[in-house]
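TICKET #2291
ISSUE: user wants both folds in one file
ATTACHMENT 1:
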Amino acid sequence: MVTLDTKQFDNWIDRLSEDKNIQQIKRLTEVISSDAEPEVGQTPKEVIWTKNKTKLYRYQPAIKKTNKVPILMIYALINKPYILDLYPGNSLIEHLTNKGHDVYLLDWGTPGHEDRHMKLDDYIMDYIPRAVNKVLKTSKAKDITLLGYCMGGTMTAIFTSLYPQLPIRNLILMTSPIDFKDAGLYSNWLDKRYFQLDKMVDTLGNIPFEVIDFGNKMLSPISNVVGPYVSLADRVENENFVLNWKLMQKWLNDGIPFPGESYRQWIRDFYQDNKLINDQLVIRGRKVELANIKANLLNISATRDNIALPHQIAPLNDKVSSKNKTLHTVDTGHVSVVTGRKAINEIHPYIEKWITENSK
């Protein structure tokens, strides 16, 4: 039997602690279990208007506001909008404010059980118009730029078509589905012959974030569930990578419930019946016709987006009446269109340049 005296044991522990693989495992464990979460949404802002859970933020640029047309950003009813202001140096909002733009964000807040009857009609007809008017009044501007991301862009397009009398100069949509004829795996999963939509909403009220998140992850389960941890283990010694990994995991796991009646509309009228692109969608008694959109249009799709497929986005350009319209395709995914290296180096500057050129 071989035994180790105290000195030998201490030496063995010292050598073990110096082993690179052990250090990587130790750091990996720390990142996953004990590291503090990074602070997000750090661009200075103030609340200038509220309604129910919703807040309208105005951001304070680092330089004097030099661009006369204010920008109102509208996000989806799922997840939280700080993805647009994720972290200093990795923030679309920060990039725009640093270029002298007057930036506003409509944050829907976290719905409670009492909000389960909220419909898309309510958000589009009651909330967005008041936010637009507040932005125009606050900025003392004659017209406005609207920027919608994901489902928020779909809602923004609907709003713009219903309010052609408002001074909407520019419309920017980022990975926002318009045509739901072929929504990839979602079309299979949400087929009205099998998906018990009414039973789900009537039973749950608001749809839990975990339900939405599970569906999104199942679009590519290996890369979405296992992939992030494999990447972390491989690059855990790179502190910049670790920071970005923690930022994304924080946002991806920081979801909110989907208001029940809005979810019922979103699935039935869009994914199941594809009413929007076919001019059949009715919002509070008013028919939505995308041809009413006349604003300058920048429509952005991502080649590796499996949530809003490129062919769901492109048809909008053929429907609108805009004389100035651009379909811009980028080689990213649904989230990396707004955050990450390519977004920082290419997409944010492209959006800012387009806004500036179309706001003179």
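ATTACHMENT 2:
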Amino acid sequence: MSADADARQRHWAKTRNLTVLVLILWFIFSIIVPWFTKELNEATFLGFPLGFYMIAQGSLIVFVLLIFFQNWRQDAIDDEFGFGEE
């Protein structure tokens, strides 16, 4: 296997792992957290029941942060293996 093919394989492995991590976190905040809304409502956050807050705003904040995190990490991975745009 050539050095270029090896670099592409390691790049793909890191990209795949990042994608799996982001999808797992996305699943947790889109399916698991809403599933436990009643239990989360026993606690409060900023005066709101935690389950309500997580559904109304918390999960959306997490999704936006995940988008920025994935973009930042993917740029770093691309630059590490010489596939960056710059």
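RESOLUTION: both attachments delivered.
EXTRA DETAIL ON ATTACHMENT 2: The first strand starts at residue 44 and ends at 45.
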